[in-house]
Amino acid sequence: MVKVHLWSGLRTLTGGLECVEVEASTTGQLLAALSLSYPELEPVIESGVSIAIDGRIIATSLTEPVSAENEIFLMQRLKGG
């Protein structure tokens, strides 16, 4: 299981949880597991999120490995110009 810290704007979509745990070994599996466990997150994930793994931002890779030892944050992408 990996622990995923949620950006403040995403917490309302998980019943106010600041941190959730899902079974995943890649960023793609992590996003799929979050969508299954928290269906309210799915539209946000589909429109674009970034994942920070140990302080490194992953914006597009779905094959980046994740493990229980990583510090993982899920962030909604900011839009605008």
UniProtKB/TrEMBL annotation:
Taxonomy, superkingdom: Bacteria
Transmembrane segments: none
Pfam families per UniProt: ThiS (PF02597)
Name of the featured protein: MoaD/ThiS family protein
Species in which this protein is naturally found: Parasedimentitalea huanghaiensis
